[in-house]
Amino acid sequence: MSKPEAVKEPSMDMQKAMIARNYEAITSKHETGRKVSSTFVPGNLNELLMCFDIVNNLPEINAIQAGMRKASGGYIMEAEKSGHSEDVCTYVKADIGQMSKGNIAPNGKPYPNPDVLMLSYTGCYTFMKWFELLREEYKCPTLMLHVPYEGDGHSTQNMRDYIVKQLKEVVIPGLEQVSGVKFDIDRLRQYLAASAKAEDNLVWCLEQGKKKPSPIDAYFGGVYYIGPIFTAFRGTEDAVTYYEMLRKEVQSRIDNHQGPLTPEGTYFNDQKYRLVVEGPPNWTNFREFWKMFYDEGAIVVASSYTKVGGLYDKGFRHDPANPLESLADYCLGCYTNRNLPTRVDLLADYVNEYEADGLLINSIKSCNSFSAGQLMIMKEVERRTGKPGAFIETDLVDPRYFSAANVKNRLESYFQMIEQKRRGGGSAKSAA
Amino acid sequence: MSGKNKTVADIVAVCQEMFEDLQFNYARKWKAAKPGRKVIGFLPVYSPLEMIHAAGCLPLGIFGGGDQMEVIHGDAYYQSYICRIPRSTIELGVTGRLDFVDGMIFPFVCDVIRNLSGMWKLTFPNVWSKFFDTPQNYIPSIGGTYYEQELKELKEGLENLTGRKITDEDIKASIRLYNENRRLVREVYAFRAKEPWKAPTSEVYLLMRAGLMMDVAEHNQMLLDYLAAAKAEDRPKRDNVRIAIYGSFCEQPPLNLIKSIEMAGCYVVEDDYALNNRFLMVDVPTDGDPLAALSNTYIENSVETSCKYVPDGKVKGEYHVAQVKACGAEGVIYATPSFCDPALLDRPMICGKLSAEGIPYIAFKYAENSGQMQPIREQAGTFADSIKLWS
C-alpha cells in the first residue's frame, strides 16, 4: 500500500514549484543555451553564478532527491561495483551511480553535462575529491575556491584576503569565460541585497523555535525552511517572496498557538520534549524518521543542519556594500567550517536559549566533517547545560544504514531519560 | 648515536626502540636536558618542521598508537566508522603519554584530523595547538601569498609559546639542516630502489619514522651511517618483484604488514609512508626571505598526494606513474587505512591512471592495529606471482 501524500503548506508548494522550474532550466539547457554549473550547498555562490546567467545544479540536492525517491540505494551499489569504497560519502556514490543509470533528473529528463564545476570547497574535504571525480567524467572546467577552515575559532584577514583574491583572479574570470557574460558588480550587489532580505526572514522563522509551543520544527521542517536560501535561489526575488510567505505562516501558527504541520496534516501542538539536533537528517526514510519524533511528542526547536549553508542567526548577512568580502565571510562562517569548540558553544547556547530538554546527535556514517568528534560534542554540551544528550546513527542516502528499530529504541530510551531527569531535577516542566 | 662502524642492525635497533616507545622517552630526555626546551607534536601529512626547529623546539611526529597499544579511552570518542589514528592519538593524550608535549600541530589531511584539532583544544586547553591549513590554490601570487602569511602566524604562535623571537637566520639555519635531511632521505630511497635487497623497507621505514621523532642533525648522521652500513653489508638478492605502495600517507600500517609484503616476494622500492620528510621534493632556497622560500617550494615542488587538490585534471595521477617508472616498480599496491576518505576517494582515479599506463595494481585496506597478516601475504604473493608470470 502506498503512503498517503504528505500534507503541505503553501510555502512548501511554492518551493516545490521553484525547484521544478530550476530542474526544468537545468535539463533544457540545450534548448535555451543557458550554461549550467554544478556546485555545493556550503559555500554556495548562487548570487555570483546568477551574475553570469548560470543555472545552479547541486549534486548534494540531487542525491537527497534520489534518497527521498528511494533510488539512492541502487545508485550507491552501482558506484561500489565500479570501484568506489563502501567507506566513503554516499552523496558522492549516489551521484556517480546515478550517472551510470542514465542520470535522470526528478523531472524525468536527463541531466545535461555541466559547463563548469564550481568547487566552492567549504567545510567538507570530500567536496574536493567529489569534483575531481566528476571532472574526469565531464571534462569541463573546474573552478576551485579554497575556503580555509576556522581552526582557531575565528576567521583572519589573511583567510578573507585569500578568498577574495581567488574570487577576483580565478572564479570570476573563469565564470566570464564559461558564460561569455561580463561580470557586473552592481548586479551582484542587487542580488546580495535580496539575499539579506530573505535571510532576515529565515532567521526570524528559525528563532520562533524559542516559543512554547514551538510553531516550527527546526530539523524536519527546517530542511524545508532552508531550502531556497541554501540552494539555487538565494538572491532571487522568488526567495524573498518565499520567506515572506513562510514568515506569515509561522506568525499565523503563533497567533493560533499551533505547532508545525506534520506530513499527516495535523498541527503538532502536544509538544512534550524540546530538542536541539546536531547533524544532517537521514533522507531515505525521512517521513518515518520524522514520525518517530512527533509520535512521541518530540519537537526540534533548533538544529545545526539548518546552519550548514550559512550561520545567519549569529548576525551574518550578505552585504551589498562589500560584495566579494561578504561572500568570503559567508563561506568562512558556514557551520562545518567552524571548529569543534565553536560548534560546542553554539549547540550549548541553543540548548539554553531555546530551553531545550537536551541535545540529540544524528551521527551520519559517511559524513566525517560532521561526525568526527560528535561524541565529544555531546559530552561537552551535556556538561555545560546539565541536560541529557543522546546519540543515534544513520546515513544520508544509504538505506542500508537506517535501522528503524534501533533508532526508535534509542529515541524512546532518550525520552525516558528526559522524563527521569525532569523528575529528578524537580523543576523542569512539560515543554508545551 | 652517531659514530663510525655502526652496523645496520645497530642502527635499526635504535630506530625500532624509538618506534615502539609510546612513552616517547627520547623526546622526554631531550626536553629535560636543558631548561626551557619545548616539544611540538605534529600529525601527518605535512608540517614545515623547519619552523618548529627554528623556534628551538623538537618536532615530534605523532603517528597514532600502532599495533602495540590497546585503545581503551579513544574508542569512546569515535564511532566505529572513523579510522583508527585519531582514536589512538586521543588515547596517547588522555593516558598521559604526551603530557610533556607543549604544542600540537594538526596539518590539513582530512576532516577527521581537522576535527581532532578542535578536540585537542577542548581536551587539553593548556596545550598550544594549531590547525595548519596549507593552500589548495597553487598560484604563487594567491595560494603562495596566503601560505606565507600562515607561516608568519605559525611563527608568531611558536614565539608566544617559547617566549623568544625567531629570526630569519634561525629559519635559514633550520632550512639548511632539513635540506640536508631531505637530500639524505632521497639518497636512502634511491639506494633502496637500486638495491632493495640491501635496504629492505621494513628497515628504511623504521629509519624514517625514528627521524621524525629526533633531532634533525642527529638523524642526518644516522642516515649517513645507515647508507654506509647498508652498502657495506652483503645480503642475498632474491627473485622478488619491485612494487610501489601508495595510499598509506596518514595512518601507518603495522610493521608486520610491511614485513608480510616483503615476505610475500615483493621489494618495496617506492612508498608514501610518513611522507613529511619527502613532501618538499627539492632544496628550499636559503637566500632571500625564508618564509617565501618555504611557501614557494610548497607551491611549486611538493608531492602529489590525496590531501592536495590537483588543479589540472589531465595530470591527476601522473605523479604516481612517473614515480613508479623512475624507481622501476613493476606494480603498485594501493594500501589504505579503512575509512580513509582521502585515499579511498582518490583510489579510483589513481588506480585508473595506473591501469591506463599498463601498470598492474592491487588494493586493500588495513588499520594500524591490523593483526591478521595471512590474507595480506596471500594477496601480495599472488600479485607478485602474477607480475612474474604475466607482465
From TrEMBL, chain A:
Keywords: Iron, Iron-sulfur, Metal-binding. Pfam families: HGD-D. One of its GO terms (molecular function) is iron-sulfur cluster binding. Belongs to the FldB/FldC dehydratase alpha/beta subunit family. This is Benzoyl-CoA reductase subunit B. It comes from Paramagnetospirillum marisnigri.
UniProtKB/TrEMBL annotation, chain B:
It comes from the Bacteria. Gene3D superfamilies: 1.20.1270.370, 3.40.50.11890, 3.40.50.11900. InterPro entries: Benzoyl_CoA_Rdtase_C (IPR011958), FldB/FldC_alpha/beta (IPR010327). One of its GO terms (molecular function) is iron-sulfur cluster binding. Keywords: Iron, Iron-sulfur, Metal-binding. Belongs to the FldB/FldC dehydratase alpha/beta subunit family. This is Benzoyl-CoA reductase subunit C. It comes from Paramagnetospirillum marisnigri.
